[in-house]
């Protein structure tokens, strides 16, 4: 029990802290092109990043999520650093109830207004290097409005003027990773780098620690399961209590019986 507690108390927080500056990735399959097929974000306060490639001019990426009254929603928009991508000026619209009327180059659900984010003409995008995946991006901008009405909201990203290319949308600020997320990090990093069209191997230093820590954590978990599955008294050695001189006789404990 002490070993399991030490492992959980020291190794697990260290492993889960490794991706603390990263987003949970979602890779668009190219079908979230309408409100009906939008990618659902279960908790928009959690830090995600949705990677998407615009292959059909004028077809936007749709995300959908629920918002509580008075909740702030953070959204940022960017493109990977690729040849020619610095000139791309993707747009992002936050659509929902109670927002001002908005005109967009595509139809939106009835009764919704919106806020639009687009890098102004002539302003340079912000260069960003992510150490976690070894990738570079041009950040176009961010918004974080406080939404007064509860309801269903959409985030919609597109490339104007019939352009095609890659973009990403990153909602949420709160980091929330599970052990399963951490175990899958090598494969996730490879997919993110492929989206950025990087083929060189990349091995962040924390992955070496991860490779050593995960087997220990898994072993501690199995030990705990085994301990919890062992009955307090083995059924074959359970006997009724009988009186003896000086007290009450009790059956041997599970520890002494070898259970």
Structure description:
The chain has 259 residues and is an alpha+beta fold. The protein has two domains: 1-20 and 177-232, no CATH class; 23-176, Jelly Rolls (Sandwich). The chain is built from five helices and 15 strands. It has helices spanning 2-17, 179-183, 185-195, 206-229, 254-257; strands spanning 24-27, 39-40, 48-54, 61-67, 71-72, 75-80, 91-96, 113-118, 126-130, 135-143, 146-147, 151-158, 165-171, 242-244, 247-249. Strands 1-3-13-6-10-9 form a six-stranded mixed sheet. Strand 14 (242-244) and strand 15 (247-249) form a beta hairpin. The protein is globular and about 60 Å long. The chain starts with a helix and ends with a helix. The model is unreliable at 1-21 and 234-259 (pLDDT under 50).
CATH topology type of the largest domain? Jelly Rolls
| Biggest β-sheet: strands ordered side by side in the sheet | 1-3-13-6-10-9
Alpha carbon gyration radius = 26 Å
Which CATH-level-2 architecture of the largest domain? Sandwich
Tell me the strand percentage band: 25-35%
How many separate structural domains?
A: 2
Poorly predicted runs are 1-21, 234-259
Structural class: alpha+beta
CATH class of the largest domain: Mainly Beta
Cα distance spanning the termini: 16 Å
The percentage helix is 10-25%
Calculate the mean pLDDT score and round it: 80
Task: Tell me the major beta sheet.
Answer: 6 strands, mixed
**What is the string of SSEs from the N terminus onward?**
HEEEEEEEEEEEEEHHHEEH
Shape: globular
Task: Briefly summarize what is shown.
The chain is 23% helix and 30% strand.
